# Entry
Amino acid sequence: MTELNYLTANYTLRSWFFTTDHKRIAILYFASLTLFFFIGGAGATAMRIELATPQADLVSDDIYNRLFTMHGIIMVWFFLIPSIPNTLGNFIAPLMIGARDLAFPRLNLLSWYIFMLGGSVTLFAILAGGIDTGWTFYTPFSTLYSNSYVMVAAAGVFIAGFSSILTGLNFIVTIHRLRAPGLTWYRLPLFLWSLYATSVILVLATPVLAITLVLIAVERCFGVGFFDPRIGGDPLLFQHLFWFYSHPAVYIMILPGMGVINELISCFSRKQVFGYKFVAWASLAIAALGFLVWGHHMFVTGQSLVASLVFSFMSFVVAVPSAIKVFNWTATLHKGSLRFDAPMLYALAFIGLFTIGGLTGLFLACLAFDVHATDTYFVVAHFHYIMVGGMVTAYFGGLHYWWPKITGRLYSEYWARTAAVLIFFGFNLTFFPQFILGAEGMPRRYHVYPPEFQLWNVLSSGGATILAAAYLLPLFYLGYSVFFGARASANPWDAPGLEWQTSSPPPEHNFDIQPVVTRAPYQYSRNFEAEPQNA
Ligand code: HEM
Ligand SMILES: [Cu+2]
# Structure
């Protein structure tokens, strides 16, 4: 008889839906986010089918507007923002610091319920008739003209925001208060530095979004003029408020991914992360500087030239800490003893795709180029390279890396590598042509286009088909592994982190004896054997 673990300790529904165990809550999030990912993905697939031909043969303009709005809202708020923090972070963070749980376990459960309430309200808005404003809710369209379910969708996002704030607080307090003896800040795994920086943004920025959504509601319901110029409002005020949240939010959508990449790169090159302190502080620098660049979304709104120049300059500055990380990952790989297991394939893909996303961000930060590229497919390609090529790739990498820890089972390495390669190929075929389309002037958010754009659109739609199939693959082999996979040992990758020192899956209370940390993270001996942080 094997020892009880967090999965086998209790089987009742009650033990799942009223659990305060961070590991079970992570699983609840994982199940919900997987659902949202595939709902959002279905919207994307429908759009790419429509765009395979220049005419409108699948959906009307009205439906198309609702499709991309639904896709954006679901993906941004109900997948990307919570993805790594709430699933991998929830599961792994306490294990990494040698704690029994997060600082506020019941708050953690409450956050999941709030998240699900927000998600249900948003899904209701989509099913009841949809919303057509785009995920950005731009005014005056969202306040004045749109007859769609703006209020309901905004309410859903508003509610989900509270979940973000509470989760952020929980991580901040946990990382401050619950570190194992000996686990100083500079011995903290870099994943936790990035989670910490992300949480700071979550706590400081999310309230701004919440207020903005309330202002939309007040304007729509009571005709108070915040944004509508006819009643004395200013539509640009909305854009300022929105991007003051949403630019930092794009770092919520990439920092945790960067954090995961440190763990993977180090483990699969059997080396310490190069320039640990630089990488650690780069996360906080990105979080801080990210608050100063929102105006690069507003270059064509007629803001003053001086304002645009400052925002342009700051956008270049915030690229520096991101570049530091890319350099340091590359330096970590250099002369490492590389192993190309599936998580490593995702990590390498991440470095390449994130670099393309980041560099094209610099193109857009140049005023003259941005005037040409605004609201074209170039922007669409840019942010998908960051958000999908970056965050989603890192999420898959981390999911595979920690899968044996989470489930206690090994997955098929053959299928995992196949999926990783297909995802990389499908992704590039989907989004690279969009840079070309954008540079040639194809605007975003249209369902018909001149025939000369068809070739690149067909390639993109073809890539999307491969990508969609490739994203479905893990559902099968990971699902299979849960029931039939070989049993995983405590430390299948031979990694040094604390999370690998407890059994797979971990017992309910995580550690039988409180670990005491004696080493910096990522230590490997000369023959590439991991030296556990607590040995
Ligand atoms: C690191 C993570 C990043 C993410 C997740 C991200 C995400 C996004 C998103 C979602 C948009 C589109 C907004 C919309 O119009 O709906 C966007 C646009 C933009 N991004 Fe990024 N971005 C990132 C990095 C960067 C960097 C490093 C720069 C420049 C240094 C940059 C510069 C821009 C600019 C200037 C635009 C506006 C383009 C336009 O609307 O014409 N981004 N980004
Ligand atoms: Cu931005």
Remarks:
- Residues 121 and 155 are 7 Å apart (CA to CA).
- DSSP finds 17 helices and no strands in the chain.
- The radius of gyration is 23 Å.
